Structures are given as structure tokens and as C-alpha cells.
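PT: before anyone asks, these are the final sequences, not the draft ones from last week. 559 residues across everything. Please model them as a single complex and drop the result in this thread when it's through.
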Amino acid sequence: MNTTLHDTAPKPLFARGPGLALNFFLLGCLSIALMVMDTTSPRFASARAWAAWALQPLIWVAQAPQNLAQLGDAFQPRDDLLAENRQLKQHQIELDARLLKLESLEAENERIRALLSSAASLPDRVLISEVMATSQDPYRHQIVLNRGERDGVYKGQALIDANGVMGQVIQVNPSTCVALLITDPDHGIPVEFNRTGLQTIALGRGDGQGLSLPYLAGNADVKVGDLLVSSGLGGRFPAGYPVGRVFELRHAAGENFMEALAYPAAKLNEGRQALLVWSEHGADPVVDVTVPTARPEVKKTQGEHERGGERAAQSATSKAAGKAASPANSAANSNKVGESARAPNLKLSTSTKVAPEKSTADTSAAGAKTSASGNATTGPKSRHKADSPAAAASPP
Amino acid sequence: MTRHSSFPAFISTVLLSLILQMVALPDVIAPFRPEWVAMSLVYWAHATTDKPVLVTAWLCGLALDVLFNTPLGQHALALVTITFVVRRLRSSLILFPLPQVSLVLALAWAAYAFMMFWIDGLSHHSAVPSLRWLPVISTTLIWPLAAMAMDRLRAQPKLRRLT
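LR: through. Structure below.
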């Protein structure tokens, strides 16, 4: 360093006084007090939201290099674009054809579910959002999206992309929101194995590319390559979306539990868009507790059957509540965050599970249900397979 | 030179460091991102005496806490602490040549990383601990270059008038 004492310290003897130490002491105490209050109570949430809003310009500037790099995409040969356009149109036709089929399947599925007086339906309201920034802290897997309170985004809302579940919203600012990805070590999501219906919790591992399933019984039927789908327990995530695929199983000698590792299905590091999903439970948890009685969308043809089923369901609900609550509770308790399964959500998840199981109160219903969901849906949407072992075990 | 003559340079470098802390890097080198904010604050605490570095460190720390969604005060406490220590030891540090100062400051970066790690543990945020320590290495390596560049900039007569 080519500076000298003389020109850098105008008052070397008296410039520093007790003020410095006092300042440090005050600021340090203030920081510690803030930390304690911030971690124990949510009272700073709004201040944080406004600070995030005020710091928006900083994020824009920091993202500028990335955006500039993407300017290169704007210049492409015409032929390439034409070829791509042709390809996309072709793809669109294919997808349209499949969509036609899907609509009829959805209608059929709805009818069959109505017959079983099941409450599950697919969330239909989604909102596309742009990823504005990704957290540059390697220990926290978070992204900032350009939708906020104004667009009706709520805390705990699920986030998906074209391939699977990405995460959930943890903080809502006026015009942006922050989402926690499923790979964050603080995140847990209730999942089930698509092949066997086994339910468990997938935790983020924090290395950015893995999920860990630590609560598997040592003899659980799990194979490498198994698809994990969201189970919908806890009501926060819509059921049936792909979450990940198992790539490794670890049996620790002497341990009671087996651990499975999975890669997330969603492309977490790629792409600029994400879909915010209004899952029917998450948006309004209070309404859904009375799901078996209030269902206006049921068609008239099934009305009679429906009413019969409902009465049975209501009378059986109280008996079944204890039994059905136990898997949900254990799933929720083992959930590390607690964010993805809070108390009100827990309640409704038990009620939605109870209704279909008990409506006809014998095992044939369970059999019909699994076959129906297997027929009427494609791939990951067959969530009610999960219930079949439990329902079959119930005494006739 | 008047008392607050290099104030604009101070503010702009601190803002620049905040932005550098946020700029997206490829996944491979992202864990090695130097602690730019800590570096800029320590530079000013070490090179000058007339800047309100402690308050600036605190505000920058709060900004980082909001940007990275950590508990409010985590970055603030760590930044205030290392800025205070460097400002306190300035009269001894200024006597040593740059390589030796860089080595001593490696301890400051390690202290910063340790405080972040420690508060993470207290707030029950589990993370891969090795990742917390990688920036210590990169910051130690970048510091001499950054300090020399800043000294060079501040020594320019044209800029001296400006800053």
C-alpha cells in the first residue's frame, strides 16, 4: 500500500475516541435484539417487505448482466426462427389433440370422483410469473418472482414448472414475492411414491440438486428410479404433481430408517418462468373443512347417490377421524419446516381423506376407487392409490 | 482536502460491492464469491478515518439480510464487528506492507464466516458448513488486488479532486 500515515490520517491521535467503541456496542446490541425479535415473532414481516421493495433497484442492476447476456438471443437467423416456428406449430397441433382427449378424461374423472364422493379436484387457477432473481447465497435456495400481493399471491402458495413442483412462496411483497425451493434445507414437502403409494416427507439437502427422504422404514418397498409425486397432505401443495425421482438408497447399518435420495423433477436452475398455483386448500383453509357437504359442481345425475353417500360419510367421520389423522399427523410432525403443514391445513387434510374412505364403508369401495383413478387419470394424478392399503385394512 | 471530500467514492464503492454480492455467477464458482461488502467496508475502515463505516456497515448488513432473507441483523452484526476490529487495529495495520496486512485480514474474513455460520446454527438454519468457508479463501486472494486498485484510483490527481 503506498499510502502513508500522514496523508491518510488527518488526526491520528484524537480522531478516534470512545465514540467508536460505544457505536460498536450500540449497533451490536441493536443487531442482536433485531435478530432475536425477528426469529421469534413475525412482527417485522411488513418492514422486511418494504425494505425489499426499496432495494428493488439494486436487484435490477445486479440482474442487468444476465439480462444483457440474454440479449444475444434476440439476434437469430431467420431460417432458424422459421424452422422453430414450424416445429412449434406442429407440436401445438399434437398437444391440442391430446388436450381434447384430456378434457373428456377430466370430465369422466370428475364424474367418477363425484360418485365416490371424493373431494379431490385439480387446481385450475394458475398464474405465470417471471423469475426476477435467484438467491446468490449458496445456503439458501430462494427465487424472487415478479408477482406479489397485487396479483393475489399468498404466503404458502405452491410453485410449479412444466416438470414438477418447484417450491412455495414464503414472503409476499407488494409487487414481488420470494419463494423457497424444495431443495432448500429448510424445506419439506409431503410426497408419496407413485408406484406403491407409500407416503413420506422429502427434505431439501441444501446442495442445490438433491432431495432427501430420511423417514423410510428399513423394509420399505423403494427402488431406484421411483417417481415421487406430491401427496397433498397438509393441503399446501396440490396433489399429484411430480416432485422427484429416486437415484440412490442408503441403508445405514444399525439404523431403523432407510434414506432415499432423489433429484427434483422441476428444472430449478433453468428457465425464467414459474407457475403459481391456487390450490383449493391453501387459498381458503376454513371452507374446505366441510367439503363432503358443500359441493355445488356436482351434476344432477349423481345427486341422489351423492346424498346417500354423504350421510354415511358424516356419520362415519367422527369414528374415522382418529384413525385417518394418525398418518397425516405423523407426516406433518416429521415435517421439519412446519411451514408446509400448519394446523388448519392439517385438519382439512384429514377430513378430505376421511370422506371417500368411509362413504360406503367396505373394502370394495377402496378397490373401485383405485381402479377408477388408475383408469381415468394419466400418470402422476393417481393419488388415491395411497389410500388403498389403509382402506383395505379397515374392518368391513 | 476537506473532511468529507472522498464521500462520493465511499458511497459508490459500497453500493457497487452490494451489487457485486448479488450478481449471478455460474454455479461452479458461485460458492467462491468473495465477500465484496465486507471487503469494501474493511478497505475504507483501514484506509481512512473520517468515514462513518460502522453505521454504513450496519445499514449494509440490514440490506443484505433483507436481500438474502436471513434473520434481520445477522449480516449486520458480522459486518459491524469486523469493521470495528479493523478500525481499532488500524494504527498497527497501517505500518505493515500489503502482503502481511492481507494475511492478517484473512482472520477477519474467517471471523466473518464464523459469525454467519454461528448465527445460522443459533437460528436453526442447517446448511452445508463447508460452503460457508470457501469465500474466506477467495476474499483473501482478491483483497490485495482490490486494495491496490482502490489505492491507485484514489491517488489519481484528477480523481482526487473529484472524489
